[in-house]
Predict the structure.
Amino acid sequence: MSTKAKCEICEICEFTDSRGVRLKVDREKGIIEGVKILGLESANGRTYPKQTIAAAARLYEGSKVNLNHPDGNPTQPRDYRDRLGTMREVRIGQGDGGLFADFHFNPKHPIAEQLFWDAEHSPENVGFSHNVAAKVSRSNGKVVVEEITRVQSVDLVADPATTKGLYEHAQDQDTEDGDMPATLESLQADQPDLLKSIRETAVKEHVNSESVKTEVAKNAATIKTLTEENDRLKAAETMAALKVTVEKELAEAKLPEPIVSDVFREQLYGAKDPAARKALIEDRQAIAKMDGSGRPLSTEQGLTEGEGERAKPADVANRLRK
């Protein structure tokens, strides 16, 4: 059964390229004749009946052509730097009944040479997207453009043959500002292929995202392991250099071997700086200079063999060696 919804007023951006059209280029005057600006079926799934196109042809005459569509509101004023040219001699094509026109623009414009080349060698790259207000209805899951009420502009855009569209917003005839955003139900009914593509893309992006997360986690673990190993090697290198320095300092101090114990060496390794090591070594030198009575010249006088008896140098050395 045919189902037809009430008319809606829409701002529509529709892409059309000149694929398969023979274009005539006048480089001196800046004219590309015969560009296509509207067809009967759009890449967005909208249908333009021939009577709709025929009635709207006059609205496209003299329409402005800008570089790309505006960001945001399609009816907003355009920057002068965006203005490229105009459409003239708008006519209905003999074949599919679409709209064609002659594109007039400044031949000294920065993109003119690129545009001339595309028109002469790759007409599919010469693409336009009309920015219009229109009345549309939905019939059997399709959007039918019943009437084009205003042509805002016909803009030159990139990749028109492959791009589905930039934006479209609909307003109910009974309201002034009520937006009618697309829903899953409306997409399923009107553009099932687009909805399927969106879902497939979402699944792929999710899978890719999980793969990236896994790879990042693996790399993070590897980096942590390498960092820890690097820190360990640096610590070992630092300790080796310190041991060489300590042995050199001991050799210069000419301390007797009996009082240079492993414990004393560990004390030197743990000293905060050279000054601290120097103090420890000088203290040992003082012990080494104890006189025959056993009286130390340093402050280490607590090492005794018995009460009231001073330790002999040999005894002190034995205790330190332990």
The longest strand covers residues 142-156. Residues 192-253 form the longest helix (62 residues). The helical segments are 50-60, 112-121, 184-190, 192-253, 262-270, 274-288, 313-321. Residues 254-321 form one domain.
